Amino acid sequence: MPAQQAPTGDSDAAADDRDKPQPSLWERLDRPSPAPRTTLTPHRISEAAVAIADTEGLDAVTMRRLATALGVAPMAAYRYVSGKDELIELMVDFVYGQLPLDTPADGWREAMRSLAVHLRAMNLAHPWIARAATPFSLSPNQLAVPERAFAALAERGLDADTTMAVFRTVAVYVHGSSASEVALEDLRRARGWSDGDETRAGLAPRMTYLMGTGRYPSYQQYLRQATRKDDPDWHFTTGLDCVLDGIAAHFGI
Question: Residue 110: which pLDDT band, with cuts at 50, 70 and 90?
Answer without folding.
Answer: very high
